[in-house]
Specification:
TIM Barrel, 10 helices, 15% strand, 45% helix, alpha/beta
């Protein structure tokens, strides 16, 4: 089933994102968490892969197993980094054979140690080129693309960033899933600007419930998201008390998601970091997926 079918007037599209664990033990732990997350009846589950495609095979193994466990649509991430068009076609052909119906199409970050993205000879420089390639050669696959409520770090300004998103949508994307954010006003402004530019596909907020202050500081520094001052203060006040940090994070995420639902978002995409506790607590609080 295509991603576009996950969202509708009578349907709230809940989804989760996984990443390939580094060990077999980590993988089995992840699947135990997936079993818990499946209780919330998500519309689909997706999985990233490592820098430069280093875990592509593992990513397909994970999403194929999730599909076997759940019968749900699954999506693999796909980037332009380090791959020619022919290699991308080979990967997508294998993905489709394994029951993967959808792709999260991204340009991808520069490989570790490099400050700028360089296109592979015979590959693509921009995500819109990747989207167009998928749409032309794998027309039946659903395509999600990334949106940035607070602007992509490399974009010079919000207008340029939004124009880049419009190119991805015009190339054939079905859904926009946003980078994580913690100020709903940024998302709502982003949504309004998308609408004004004629972007009329579902725009789904991507959320990461905070359970560890140091970890979220690292993540937000990498993607450019900002933490509200009062939230950062609450996390700092929790000190080294892991339970207190967890409770503060769940409380904030519950309020954030509740406000977004009231604002009429078509769904929520949760970056769960291969865990289920925080996402489950938030979804239980709101009765989402029940």
């Amino acid at each position: 089933m295509s991603l576009s079918a996950v969202y509708g007037a009578d349907r709230f599209g809940l989804s989760f994102e996984l990443f390939p664990p580094k060990t077999d033990a980590g993988e089995e732990a992840m699947f135990r968490h997936v079993e818990r997350l499946l209780e919330f009846q998500p519309g689909f589950i997706t999985c990233t892969y490592g820098a430069g495609g280093s875990t592509q095979t593992k990513t397909l193994d994970i999403v194929a197993r999730v599909r076997e466990m759940s019968g749900l649509p699954v999506a693999t991430h796909l980037t332009c980094v380090g791959s020619t068009a022919d290699q991308l076609a080979e990967y997508l052909t294998e993905a489709r054979k394994r029951g993967v119906d959808n792709v999260v199409a991204l340009r991808g970050d520069p490989p570790k140690g490099e400050s700028a993205f360089t296109a592979t000879e015979g590959g693509f420089r921009y995500a819109n080129e990747l989207v167009a390639f998928i749409r032309e050669n794998f027309a039946d696959m659903g395509i999600a693309v990334a949106g940035y409520p607070e602007k992509h770090l490399e974009a010079p300004d919000l207008d340029v960033d939004l124009a880049n998103l419009k190119r991805k949508v015009d190339a054939g994307a079905d859904v926009v899933v946003t980078q994580l954010f913690y100020e709903n006003a940024d998302f709502l402004s982003f949504r309004d600007r998308c609408s004004a530019l004629g972007i009329d596909i579902p725009i789904v907020p991507g959320l990461l419930p905070v359970t560890n202050f140091a970890q979220i500081q690292r993540i937000t520094s990498l993607c450019g998201a900002k933490l509200p001052k009062e939230f950062a203060t609450a996390l700092e006040a929790a000190g080294d008390d892991e339970d207190a940090q967890f409770e503060a994070g769940v409380e904030f995420a519950t309020k954030q998601m509740e406000a977004l639902i009231k604002a009429g978002v078509p769904g929520i995409h949760l970056y769960v970091l291969n865990k289920s506790e925080a996402a489950s607590a938030v979804l239980e609080n709101l009765g989402v997926g029940r």
